[in-house]
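dumping this here before i forget
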Amino acid sequence: MEVDIRSTYSIVSEHTFDSLKLKKEIMPINIIFRTYDKRILPDVAFLQVTIAYQQKEFSAGVYIVDANLDSICGREWVFQAGINLVNVNEIEAKDRESSNRTNN
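structure:
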């Protein structure tokens, strides 16, 4: 999931949502999302979910789109989770290093 504070909302593809096998009902909504290059993301739905991050748990919305894209963690989740954006790249780099050590 990519952190994007320019995005107000958190968004996942329908494929990603289906792979999670959540037993929750999604709500179709009438909203239009555009990518940074102005493409329109089709077939948007909404789901309220409970997020657990470190020692925090909170309820937030996620939008599901019928498009092949990376998941986006928007401002709503960033601020509710208390993610320190200064260290985001550092965390990603450490995760990759750990993964490389485990896979080798």
